[in-house]
Amino acid sequence: MGSDGAATWQRLIVVCSEFPENEGTAPIRSYRKVELCHIDTLSDRRARGFDPFDEGQPCLFVVKKNSELYAYRDLCPHYGDTRLPWKKNEYLDKAGDVIVCAAHGARFDMASGNCISGPCLGQSLTAVRLHVRKDGIVIAEIPS
Amino acid sequence: MNIVGPDALIFGVDDVEGCRQFLSDYGLDDAGNGRFEALDGTAVVIAQKDDPLLPPALATGSMLRKTVYGVAEQATLDAISEELGKDRQVKKLDDGSIEVVDDTGFLLGFQVTVRKKLSLPAGRVNVPGGSEQRPVNNVAVKKEAQPKPVTLSHLVYFVPDYAKAEAFYEQRLGFVTTDRFTGVGPFMRPAGTNDHHTLFMIQTPPHMQGCEHFTFHMAGPNDVMQAGTNMVKKGYQSFWGPGRHIFGSNWFWYFSSPMGCKMEYDADMDLHDDSWSAREAALGADNSQVFLMEYREKWAPMGPPPGND
pLDDT tens, A34-45? Predict the structure, then answer.
């Protein structure tokens, strides 16, 4: 399976929906729960992209900083269809302090996802909710 | 003003090692001291962003610190000094080049060009009935080929006021507008080249000022495809391409880079002279690409017959 830790996991994808109180109306939020990796395979001040739906390109990335995990869609708000890294997993500046979009140099706060400099000032990355299961598996909730 | 085109782009970067690897994988030769050269000696130069030898950064944080143009001879350098010296400081550097700030704040250098004259074979394709075919038994494709960039082609600025910027390059430096996107900015070429453009400008809010992308000419479309494919296989992020532009007709493939802007491969750009009349079009996909292809790793379902997996 190679060196990518994510690839060693049999990924679980579950489609979930939250319904409003009145029966018969459309769900207010629909999302898929996806197993990404074991938390121990993530390094501090490093990011990793994930391609849980085998699209050939990551659709989200996870950043670990001071034991906190943050996850965002791999789309720069500048254009809305641009992926951030210049190379696989290269989502951060050299020091691992901020998220960087290599296409035009936008920089984003790691915890909030807000653009702090560059072309999409005032816009934010789209956050992805994460859970860490008791066995250490990181689960992402990806809107359908 | 016999300005030939860009000789070098100087960047102050965050990740020197990442840039070194990227520029080497792109196909440039590591000439030492952060200089990465194409076949004709034109170059990208990188240094750590806090290196005291670097010119200051723009307030926007763009990593591009300086655009160095090559001119044909000393007389052009003297003419530029005289013209721009009328209303701004022209700094003479120890290497004989001059340094000046343009009307939108970009630092420019001018030097007698370092471009080496090249003698490359013309790319030939087998056109049925054509008079100039590729010789018989001459195989066009080698899977392991590592095509080299030939020469620094053009760069694109984000500018806060394209009309002001266009007027500076046209009236003070003799650039000619070859085509334009309405309300966005002009494609421009200096007098010393027939290339459709060595400079394109895109109007943006002031906080975006910087380098949008830059590119080297490859010897032909096949080299764009193969060099780009080599980059994809090494894990680099394709941004746009491969495809072919309409204005300039150049083949293109853009990659995101650790220089905070995109780095492109191009080939087979149109040539123009002063008899050309500039066209104008609205910016958009319909007017930017005659076609666009996408690299695809998986293109067919496959697997062993039942019972063999």
Answer: 999 999 999 999
Please count the structural domains in chain B: 1
Give the pLDDT band (50/70/90) at residue B283: confident
B96: domain CATH number is: 3.10.180.10
pLDDT for B36: 98
HSE-CB of B124 using CA atoms within 13 angstroms: 13
Q: Mean pLDDT score of chain A, rounded to an integer?
A: 84
ipTM of this complex: 0.81
Mutate: best of A3, A81, A87, partner B, most B CBs <10 A: A87
Report the pLDDT value the prediction gives residue B121, as an integer from 0 to 100: 84
| Distance to chain A for B208, nearest Cα, Å | 5
Q: What is the DSSP string of B21-90?
A: HHHHHHT-EEEETTEEE-TTS-EEEEEETT-TTSPPPPTT--SEEEEEEEESSHHHHHHHHHHHTTTS--
Nearest-CB residue to B237 (from A85, A93, A121) = A85
Helix (H, G, I), strand (E, B) or coil at B300: coil
Residue B96 lies in a domain: yes
Contact B257 A86 (CB under 8 A): yes
Please give the residue that has the higher pLDDT: either A30 or B63: B63
Query: What is the maximal distance between C-alpha atoms in chain A?
Result: 51
How far apart (Å, rounded) are the C-alpha atoms in residues A41 and A137?
10
Do the domain assignments include residue B9? yes
Residue B39 lies in a domain: yes
List the domain range (segments joined by +) for residue B34: 3-113+147-292
Encode pLDDT of B217-244 as tens digits. Answer: 999 999 999 999 999 999 999 999 999 9
Q: Do residue A56 and residue B298 have CB atoms under 8 angstroms apart?
A: yes
Of A56, A103, A121, the CB nearest to B297: A56
Q: Does A103 touch chain B (CB under 8 A)?
A: yes
CA distance B38 to B284: 31
b vs e for B134-161, b when ≥16 Cβ sit within 10 Å of the residue's Cβ?
eeeeeeeeeeeeebbbbbbbbbbbbbbe
Residue B137 within any structural domain of the chain: no
Of A86, A103, A105, the CB nearest to B210: A105
pTM: 0.88
Q: Is residue A94 less than 8 Å (CB to CB) from chain B?
A: yes
Q: For residue B87, is pLDDT > 90?
A: yes
CA B82 to chain centre: 28
